[in-house]
Amino acid sequence: MKSEAKKSNVMYGQDMGSISIGKIQLSLNIDEVQTSTKGRPFRISGSRMNLQHPAKWIDKMEMHHFIHTFKYLDEQGGFFEVEVDYQNKYINNSLKKL
Fold this sequence. Notes:
0% helix
């Protein structure tokens, strides 16, 4: 029988399970391959704190802005990034193709 590892959606006190951008949900699970609105497969490649914004204490927890990098898995390849704020909400115009 194959056992599954327990997965945590918490990192640095923030819920890191997914990002909502309008009607689109981006999963932050590294094992999950997603499909873009243009049909391109991608998955998260990494996450990092955006140190351009200071940490804030919210509900007795230190919160940060994060930048999540996603990698396209097709022949074209490439990356894109999305930034979220202290409450894990998408920051408008933060979507960048790399």
